[in-house]
Amino acid sequence: MLLIAVVIGLLLSLLTWSKYRSLSVVSFTYIQIFRNIPRLVILIWVYYCTAIILGLQLKAFLAAVVAFGLQQAAYVAEIIRAGVLAVDAGEVEAARSLGLRQSQILRKVILPQALRTAIPAFVNQFVIIVKTTTIAALIGVHELLHTARSLSEVVHRPLEFYTAIGILYFVVCFVFSRAAQILETRLTAYRR
Fold it and tell me: Which distant-in-sequence residues (6+ apart) come within 8 Å of 89 by Cβ?
């Protein structure tokens, strides 16, 4: 899901700066639609409407991955755009003065700095994805919350199961956030 979001988000971000207006309009429209429709609506739409429109019945898990990936791509595109805008214009001018082509400037100057700047926002989006997976239970995905609910109904111990799930979500998000902080510190150490 994160891979889908990063690949499509990078493509959307690049299309935003396309010299062809129609491509930048498509990118802008996609980003606006997927950022402004609730995740639950997109999830249900992908799960049910792909069968109606395309005649393709996706499994619940795959529908959740596609829905969350498509929506997160819009956020990733905006994160990358913000990272690119944070790159100092003087560095781009310096790269041009060295004779680098636009594709080289993008690949060797702009994107590395933009991605470094965007690490905290990427981590935030990952944490949001992890916490949002709970709504996938509504279409029958057997994720943690769904499993806890099923077990608590059988054993009649909801406090223990939901507490364990809460702790598990916290640990996963905390560990990932901490690892990202360490990575960010290492990647930005040269700035000090």
Answer: none
For residues 123 and 176, the answer to whether their CB atoms sit within 8 Å is yes
The set of residues, in sequence order, having a beta carbon less than 8 Å from that of 24 and lying 6+ positions away, is 15, 16, 17, 18
In tens, the pLDDT along 53-112 reads 888 888 988 999 999 999 999 999 999 999 988 899 899 899 999 999 988 998 889 888
34 touches 67 (CB < 8 A) = no
pLDDT value, residue 160: 87
Exposure string over 153-192, b if 16+ CB within 10 A, otherwise e = eeeeeeeebeeebeeebeeebeeeeeebeeebeeeeeeee
Tokens of residue 75, six digits: 């956020």
**What pLDDT sits at residue 43?**
92
Q: Which residues contact 92 (CB under 8 A, 6 or more apart)?
A: 105, 109, 110
pTM for this structure? 0.80
Domains and CATH numbers, the chain: 2-191 (1.10.3720.10)
